[in-house]
Write a structure and sequence with these properties.
By secondary structure, the chain is mainly alpha-helical. Helices cover 50% and strands 7% of the residues. The N and C termini lie far apart (44 Å). Protoporphyrin IX containing FE binds at residues 54, 89-90, 101, 234-235, 238-239, 242-243, 246, 284-285, 288-289, 314, 340-342, 346, 348-350, 353-354. Pfam families: p450.
Length: 401
């Protein structure tokens, strides 16, 4: 194996990042990486260190805690000058974090998740019919992408007539490379205005959806106006592309070895465990969001100064042989927890929803297409060019019908 650190960008890394993370875990588990704009960050790749950083309340999330070089490089959110979009739980620390998270948690009560499941089943049945009728189905374009956006629209209560435009704009936000950030910033104008209008409509007429809850919390003084629109925007950003990647990556994991697909067809009880195993093996979020030590600390034997940016590699942690036996193997039901939804105070609020969507989507394909196969060699598949997300642009298949 090479003695020099691997590249963390470029075609080789994008088509298969796992060898690079293996090298880092073995040789430099808390590694200094250069970032665009002259900034740099610590990249944490071992499971034990990753878990410790995610659980540490002194690892701050407020971008104001980042050091001057990181802030000057503009690597935070591309819309970080907009208080109406960034005052959300993922960018703050306790006590604001606790307050914001409590209100948004209302989206995911058992009653609401049940209603969302029915909606997911309806949307999926329609999408699967279209896949069956298609000459060249692509499971990212035809299923993994449209299902989660329909569910986010349900959660926020986006009216039917606005949905096509909402979908189109969300596709721009889903651009992931640093180079494309300007286009993303431009599109946020639209979301800023649209979510503000949606909020005004709820102020005039209460509704039984998450935005309705957030607006009530604003009326009672619990949330500011910026916090309402920022939370709605966070649910879109955090809940869409991640779930697209989960469904796409899971189908890739299953179909690259047809015996895995056949095994699941023969024993559908393995569906839930297979979702977890896919999350561990191909974590949709390659790295968790930025963290900044509030005071000097040590991670994996490396000294970190206050404010130095830290990235925690969830993709690498899932493949750490120091934590998992046969770490690269697919063993649904192994029962080992993974870090793909994070850990600690910022653990994903949408984890149950994402799991449900993956089970509904993949379950419908198992029922309908037991002979499903990849239509191209896996070396031809293109992954998003990102160090943050980990997902496929397309997954062409043959349905075997
Ligand atoms: C937080 C992953 C789906 C909403 C997180 C975090 C991870 C994650 C790793 C923690 C980030 C950190 O600590 O830096 C995922 C994955 C998903 C998914 C892999 C799909 C497979 C969703 C969905 C929603 C959602 C469907 C909502 C509709 C959130 C929110 C947070 C979050 C609001 C911030 C929580 C906080 O800061 O307290 N997610 N997520 N996520 N996720 Fe998810």
């Amino acid at each position: 194996m090479s003695v020099s650190p691997p590249q963390l960008h470029g075609p080789e890394f994008e088509s298969d990042p796992h060898p690079a993370y293996r090298w880092l875990r073995e040789h430099s588990p808390v590694h200094r990486v250069d970032l665009p704009g002259g900034a740099w960050a610590w990249l944490v790749t071992r499971h034990a260190d990753a878990r410790r950083v995610l659980a540490d309340p002194d690892m701050l999330k407020d971008p104001a805690a980042g050091d001057a070089a990181w802030r000057a490089a503009g690597l935070g959110l591309p819309y970080d000058h907009r208080p109406s979009l960034v005052r959300s739980m993922v960018n703050v620390d306790a006590p604001d974090h606790t307050r914001l998270r409590r209100v948004a948690g209302g989206a995911f009560t058992p009653r609401r998740v049940r209603a969302l499941k029915e909606s997911a089943e309806r949307v999926t049945a329609d999408l699967v019919d279209r896949i069956a009728a298609s000459d060249r189905p692509d499971l990212v374009r035809d299923l993994a992408y449209p299902l989660p956006i329909a569910i986010i629209c349900d959660i926020l209560g986006v009216p039917g007539a606005d949905r096509p435009e909402f979908h189109r704009r969300a596709a721009v936000i889903d651009s992931s490379s640093y180079e494309e950030m300007e286009a993303v910033a431009a599109t946020t104008d639209w979301f800023d205005r649209y979510l503000g209008e949606l909020m005004e409509a709820r102020l005039a007429e209460p509704s039984d959806d998450l935005l309705g809850d957030l607006v009530e919390a604003h009326r009672s003084g619990e949330l500011s106006r910026d916090e309402v629109t920022s939370t709605a925007f966070l649910l879109l950003v955090a809940g869409h592309e991640t779930t697209v990647a989960l469904i796409g990556n899971m189908l890739f994991t299953l179909l690259r070895r047809p015996e895995r697909w056949e095994g699941l067809c023969a024993d559908p009880a393995l569906l839930g465990p297979a979702v977890e195993e896919s999350l561990r093996l191909e974590s949709p979020l390659q790295n968790a969001t930025w963290r900044f030590p509030g005071k000097p600390t040590t991670v994996g034997g490396v000294a970190l100064e206050a404010g130095e940016p830290v990235l925690v590699s969830l993709l690498s942690a899932g493949r750490d042989p120091g934590r998992y036996d046969d770490a690269d193997g697919f063993r649904p039901g192994r029962g080992d927890a993974h870090l793909a939804f994070g850990h600690g105070a910022h653990f994903c609020v949408g984890a149950q929803l994402a799991r449900m969507e993956a089970r509904v989507a993949v379950g419908a394909l198992l029922d309908r297409f037991p002979g499903l196969r990849l239509a191209v060699d896996e070396s031809e598949l293109r992954w998003w060019p990102s160090m943050i997300m980990h997902g496929l642009f397309a997954l062409p298949v043959r349905t075997g019908r």
